[in-house]
Design goal:
This protein has about 220 residues and is an alpha/beta fold. It contains eight helices and twelve strands. α5 packs parallel to α6.
């Protein structure tokens, strides 16, 4: 479906070729077909569905620490919150759970959903646990070459980013015409504010043109 995503601003990635004043992205199916001013994009596509957001549209984020998050941490089921809490369990707490393949797979699915809520659309591997590999493949999240430095295992890729890596390490790809419609929308005005507020400010994630997360 042809959709125009409109926000306050658009950032295209490290090699940002987005036109000045751009505040909208048009996607057709799984592909970006235009980036520019909302008025121009909608005038040229009067039949397009419009999704309006408040904040900044960027390419989807890359979580380079996904193997550690999914294969060395347990993401509790909400029904276990009273006993285990809500944060990922590692170390001795993880070892005490007596994990099996089914539990690893369920944990990975919950972990992947948490990544989507942080604007992540791609993950670096490799993944060695079969149940985790299956969960990643079924999630639709894009595979990405291992990063030079994965950094700490955090759901927020911005918080894990080492300063020397710079913004290039944040995004799985640039936001370009003809590229994948993998977008994140954050409730911030610009990239500087995003670095300050973190990926927890994500209000929507679009993966392959599909809205896979929307903050209520």
């Amino acid at each position: 479906m042809l959709t125009v995503h409109a926000a306050d601003a658009v950032y295209g990635g490290p090699a940002d070729g987005v036109p000045e004043g751009a505040d909208a992205v048009a996607v057709d199916g799984a592909t970006v077909v235009a980036v520019g001013a909302y008025a121009e994009l909608t005038a040229a596509r009067p039949a397009a569905r419009v999704r309006r957001w408040s904040g900044l549209i960027t390419p989807g984020l890359l979580n380079a620490a996904a193997p550690a998050l999914l294969e060395a941490a347990y993401h509790p089921d909400p029904r276990e919150a009273g006993e285990l809490g809500t944060e990922p369990l590692t170390g001795a707490a993880l070892a005490a759970l007596g994990m099996d393949d089914a539990r690893w797979g369920a944990s990975a699915r919950r972990g992947l959903q948490r990544m989507l809520r942080h604007g992540t659309t791609a993950v670096s591997g490799p993944f060695t646990r079969p149940a985790v590999r299956t969960a990643v493949a079924r999630s639709g999240l894009r595979p990405h070459a291992p990063a030079r430095s994965a950094g700490p295992a955090l759901l927020d890729p911005l918080a894990a980013l080492a300063e020397p890596d710079g913004p290039a390490a944040l995004f799985a790809s640039a936001l370009t015409v003809g590229g994948p419609a993998d977008l994140a929308v954050f409730g911030v005005p610009d990239l500087a504010a995003l670095r300050t507020e973190g990926a927890g400010s994500c209000v929507a994630t679009v993966l392959g043109g599909r809205l896979v997360f929307r903050r209520g």
